[in-house]
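Predict structure. Chain length: 243.
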Amino acid sequence: MRIALYVTCLIDLMRPGVGFAALRLLEATGADVVVPPAQTCCGQPAWSAGDRQTARLLAEKAIAELADYDHVVVPSGSCTDQLRNIYPQLFADDGHWGPRATALAARTFELTEYLARFAPELPLPDAEGGHVTYHDSCKGLRGLGIKQQPRALLARVKGLQLTEMADCEECCGFGGAFSVNFGDVSTRIVDRKCESIATVGADAVVGGDLGCLLNIEGRLRRRGDERTRVLHIAEVLAGGGES
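Prediction complete.
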């Protein structure tokens, strides 16, 4: 089994430790894991901004670079959604790229989705008494149906206590350029999320999309919360990220 780990721009630039954690998890399954060296953006920001031409060019690049792998695994619901759901839309009327986009979509998985499906017995480290709550990202939840997979994996981490926050499925207010173009609205949305996290009183909030996590962490810190850790689920499952 040859797997491509599609790291994503945010992870590569902002928190590369998440990428290394995902790599350790995938290597522990026994697969041959490759991080394609020329990978760049999946095109989601351009697509969301209405720049279809740039989105298409980036999609063509990714499709070509990821063609020779059995599976493509992405530690991000939003980028997985782009590869799986948007690429086939972009090339729906293209006789050359359309079939290639559809083939890639069928081989692309979000990280927790992949682990739950293909490595259900993967040994996971102890958490030594950590207490966490979980945030569902919009694209992962609504675009991919990612809901039970991360929770099932967290439930297998010995010593980890998961307490659900109120409205865990609500948006965090990030939405890529939305948080820039509509800052006041975004702030009100993420404030609601921060209040739900505070009510739970967990040591850490965990999620599967770094964009959401960076937005939540930034607001928590600006609200004066220096205690609550904000972790990608790969960090928890690979060890070293538990609270």
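Summary: Strands lie at 2-5, 32-34, 71-74, 108-110, 131-134, 161-162, 204-207, 229-232.
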